[in-house]
Amino acid sequence: MESGEMRQRMSLKEKFKDHYRTNPPKFSPEPKEANKVGVTYFTCMLLSLTIEGVFILIPSNFRGEFYSIIIFEVLGIFIFVQTCANWYRTWYDVANYVRSTTKEKYFSCEDTPEGWKHCFTCQLDAPPRSHHCVLCNKCMLKRDHHCYFTASCIGFQNQKYFIMFCFYTVCGCALALYLQLTYFSEIFPLSTSAAIHYIPVMPVWDWMTGVISFPVLLLMIHMYMTLTCLVATGMFGTWQMLMIICGKTSYEAKRNLSTYNLGTLDNLRCVFGPIKFCVLLLLAPLTLPQLGDGIQWEINPRCQKRS
């Protein structure tokens, strides 16, 4: 009775809070479920854009142009393969794991070394710049963030593959967007007043009024999704490159820490390996020797003087 009377005295706002506290919304996924959502979304976009480009857009846009069809299809397949290969190398992040043997490489004592921290979840000592990920349930070397689209943590060993994954995803989205706009320009030329039909709400109205067919409506919705992926991935990749150049992780950037900034070239070598071989990463996700091992870190001389 008392709980019923208390509920009657609760305001509408308090009732909503009480409801969602005891009955969380079904559309709000658990963190681990977000991995499945992210990977599924990426897989669907990758496959749909590849199939749409190779079997629909390229043959339609370049009718009778044999060499143009071959060039664009080879380019599309190359980007598809590179995206998949770099996604896999990013997903396979086991080399980032901090293990019980990690400390033994440099220390034989049982105490936590200076600058290290003890992870009570993993029950081991973790080196500087490493952090525990609640989704992977592991401590990661030089952990930057957890990526839901690869279901893995971005850290010391796989950050270069994540950069290349972002690069080829941007290239793929840019190519797909070009092919989509070329296809739709025959219906709604961009250089005329018909460009108003590209406003997101307009395709639905055009379909309802019979201006375009339902398949064309789906293609236009797909185009908006492609543009969203292009912008979002470009932002992710740009932020990561900025962090690499500055010698920081996202965690360190939020706290304005420059402890491990060794200069642009050495910062790049810490992630990509020898500068002269970095171009090879454009051809394949190779394993190149990085500067350091992700365990022991050289400290910025300026930060040493301050301390």
Notes on the protein architecture:
α3 (31-61) crosses α5 (159-184) and α5 runs antiparallel to α7 (214-246). The chain has 307 residues and is mostly helical. The chain is built from ten helices and six strands; from the N terminus they run ααααββββββαααααα. The strands form three sheets. It has a two-stranded antiparallel sheet with strand order 1-2. Strands 3-4 form a two-stranded antiparallel sheet. The chain has a two-stranded antiparallel ribbon with strand order 5-6. β1 and β2 (124-126) form a beta hairpin. The protein has helices at residues 2-9, 12-22, 31-61, 66-91, 159-184, 202-208, 214-246, 250-254, 264-272, 301-306, and strands at residues 117-119, 124-126, 131-133, 138-140, 145-147, 152-154.
